Every structure is written in C-alpha cells, then in structure tokens.
Amino acid sequence: MISQAYEKKDICLIGGGHSHIIAVKQLGIHPPPPNIRISLVCSDQFTLYSGMLPGLISGHYLPEDCYIDLQKLCNQAKITFIQSEVEQIDPHSKQIYCNLHSHLNYDLLSLNIGSQPMLHDIKGATRYGCPIKPLKQFLQSWLKWLQVAQSTNEPKHIVVIGGGAGSIEILLAIHYKLSHTTLQHVNFMLICAHPNILSSYNQCTQRYFNDYFKKLGITVIKGKRVNAISQHQLIVDDNITLNYDFAVWATHADAQSWVAKSGLKCDNNGFILVDQYLRSVSHTDVFAVGDCANFIPMSIPKSGVYAVRQGPVLANNLVAASCNYPLLAFKPQKHFLSLLTTGDRHAVASWGPLYAHGKWAWLWKNHIDRRFIAQFNQ
Ligand SMILES: Cc1cc2nc3c(=O)[nH]c(=O)nc-3n(C[C@H](O)[C@H](O)[C@H](O)COP(=O)(O)OP(=O)(O)OC[C@H]3O[C@@H](n4cnc5c(N)ncnc54)[C@H](O)[C@@H]3O)c2cc1C
C-alpha cells in the first residue's frame, strides 16, 4: 500500500493574483515532493501589476515594465499553466469548470481571483462606464477612448466614481496624461459616496489630496451616490444629472458571483471566509487569498500588500496540507505603508497616523514596484 505521504496529489491554483505569483515563485525555489502536481489556471497569460497601472497611464512606464508572464513563471517552477477563465467549481466532486478547457480535478484548491467594483445597485452600470477591474480591460477601454477623444477639440468630462486609493491614483494619472500630452480641455470630477475621500487613511493624507484636487481644479462631490448611468449621463442622489464622456467605476470591492454559488461559505458580499491558515471555513481542501477572501481572525484591507504577504504562507500550507503536516498561521501586520502617486513623479507616504510626501516617495515606490516585477521577469 502506498503511504499517504506519497499518494499523487493535484493542487490547482485559480487566478494569477499577487499571492499566487509569490507562491509559484516560492514553489519553484523550494519544489514540493514529486507526488504533488500543481497547475495554475488564469484568464490571462500576462498579468498587469496594479501598483504600476497609474504610472503606465501617466506615461512613466512602458507596457512591458508592468506585466508578468505567468506561462514563463510557471515553466520555471515546473507548474502547468492553463489559460482559461474558471466559471464554476464543485467542491463536492472537486471539479473545476473553465470556459476554454475541459473540466479539471483537484485534491487541493486555492483561489486568488481578486475583486471587481460593486455595481449591483447602479442602474445601467453593467452597460455604461468602465470598471477599473479587470485592469487589462480597463486599460484597453481608456486607450480606445483617448484615441477617439483626441480627434475632436470639444471639452470633455471625465468622472471617477469611488474615493479609495485606486480611484484617486487613476484620476490623477489621467489628469497628468491629458494635461501634459494633449491640448484637450477636460473637466475632472470625483464622486465619492462616503463623506470623505480615502476614508481608511489618516487625516493629513485626506487633507493633502483634498487640497491637491482643489489646486488642480478637480471637482470632488462627497457623500453622494451615483444611482444610474446612461450613455452620456449620470444620475446622482437628489436626482442631480451630470454629463460625462468617460466614466470610471472604482466603487468598493465586490466578489465574482459563481464563488458563493459553488457552496463555499462566504460573507454577505460573496468573499470566501477563511481561517488563520487561509483555508475555507466550510471546505478544508480549499484555500483563498487576496481580495477574494475574507480573513476571519482580523479585518484586513483589500490591498495588494496583504495579498503579497499571504503568498509564502499559502505555498507552505498547500504542500503541508498535501503531506498532512501542520499548517502555518497568517499573521497580518496592523498598519501597512501606502505610497499613493499623484500623477506626476511625486507620491504621498501614509503609515497608520504618519504621513509625508515628495519626489523621494515616488522614487521609493518606483524602486519597490520595479523590484517586485523584476523578481518574476528575470
Ligand atoms: C489602480 C489601482 C492601483 C492599486 N495600487 C495598489 C498599490 O500600489 N498597492 C497595493 O497594495 N494595492 C494596490 N491596489 C489594490 C490591489 O490591486 C488589489 O488589492 C490586489 O490586486 C488584489 O490582488 P489579488 O491578488 O487578490 O488579485 P488580482 O491581482 O486582482 O488578480 C486576480 C487574478 O485572477 C485572475 N482571474 C480573475 N477571475 C478569474 C477566473 N474566474 N478564472 C481564472 N482567473 C481569474 C485575473 O486575471 C488576475 O490574474 C490597487 C488597485 C487599483 C485598482
């Protein structure tokens, strides 16, 4: 009889998010026992790094600076890469259903499929406006719009609906791009449902961005929700109608609906509930990391920083769970350093109650981001 430790095990990773790329890298450096076969299924072969998207839009980076080639990364780690979108899983029969591939079987599963802007209650939102995620589709829509917009001289209205870090960085990147490379007359607006922008950041950071928006002439509407959108108009609370030419959805995070439908225990927003080992509370053979998970021991922000830190713990736990070894607990830090770019080569550093800004902060972020990408693209 084959001992349990040497039984063949199939581990399937769904999504090429931050935690999975770190885990793949680690599994390449420290290969698992030969009885463990690993595959990564992702909708895209080239994954766009969110931390560099604002800089790509501003024009500080070239596209090739910001992408990670998952096929190449997997080849190096002797992991099978499958380019396909997962549409459903069945945790009872342990099967995965994809759009471009026949179904897959797994012994252990990990999900790192990110999140998307919440659009449920906004009439017309699935048809009009551009969701900031998936990032690649957003970038394509922006570049297409930019090309068409540049063919006329009429004033344009750009509206970003959000108020978190990603929405602010994208708005300022678009502002920088248009004001430095075109003669286009553009009105910019940020609409934030919360009474203040960057609500999870310290007051100095909030004040800095409020003042900066004022200086750039960007209108900020706070405490109002967008309720509906049509081809050229937004309807905000109190039935105020606003015209737009390009609208970006950067509302708070929502989950992919098939995940909760599969029977995995999720919170009210469809994020998978996981324990300290990053393991589903309802299915011990399923792990979930990054934005698509809700870490029960402590509330953690949906941020790439936490997703990255979960990577090594996940890699360890997938192998440990396959071999019946004890699992490691993920211990998130309380505060994390945020470096928020302002469109130009300048950034704001925010850590808990502390704040500072300058060109040095941008250079620091640039160094961190380039080093992060380089480890996968060598
Ligand atoms: C503009 C912007 C800037 C940001 N900047 C920062 C920053 O500087 N620092 C920071 O910490 N956070 C930042 N964030 C937040 C950060 O992007 C997210 O928290 C982070 O991406 C979460 O990563 P993840 O690992 O959960 O998934 P993601 O990085 O979103 O990756 C999900 C992956 O899963 C794949 N996928 C999705 N669905 C499926 C499916 N059904 N089947 C197969 N594959 C699938 C996708 O193609 C993708 O490869 C930013 C966000 C935005 C929008």
Task: Please explain how this structure is put together.
The chain has 378 residues and is of the alpha/beta class. The chain folds into 2 domains: 4-43 and 84-115 and 255-322, FAD/NAD(P)-binding domain; 118-251 and 337-377, FAD/NAD(P)-binding domain (3-Layer(bba) Sandwich), CATH 3.50.50. The chain has 10 helices and 25 strands. The strands form 8 sheets. Strands 5-2-1-9-21 form a 5-stranded parallel sheet, with helices on one face. Helix 1 runs parallel beside helix 4 (70-77). The longest helix is centred in the last third of the chain and has 19 residues, at 304-322. It is globular. The protein starts with 8 loop residues before the first strand and ends with a helix. The model has no long low-confidence stretch (mean pLDDT 95). Bound molecules: flavin-adenine dinucleotide. Flavin-adenine dinucleotide (FAD) is lined by residues 14-19, 41-44, 47, 50-51, 53-54, 85-86, 112-114, 132-133, 166, 169-170, 256, 290-292, 302-305, 307.
Q: Quote the distance from N terminus to C terminus.
A: 43 Å
Q: What is the third-level CATH name, the topology of the largest domain?
A: FAD/NAD(P)-binding domain
Shape: globular
Counted up, domains total 2
- Order of strands in the sheet with most strands: 5-2-1-9-21
Strand residue percentage: 25-35%
Instruction: List all distinct small molecules, including ions and cofactors, that are bound in this structure.
Output: flavin-adenine dinucleotide
The CATH architecture assignment of the largest domain turns out to be 3-Layer(bba) Sandwich
Question: What is the typical, i.e. mean, pLDDT?
Answer: 95
**CATH top level class name of the largest domain:** Alpha Beta
Number-wise, the strands total 25
Radius of gyration: 21 Å
Q: What is the oligomer described by this structure?
A: single chain
Q: Helical content, roughly? A: 25-40%
Major sheet size, sense and barrel closure: 5 strands, parallel
* Structural class determined from secondary elements: alpha/beta
| Low-pLDDT stretches | none
- Helix segment count? 10
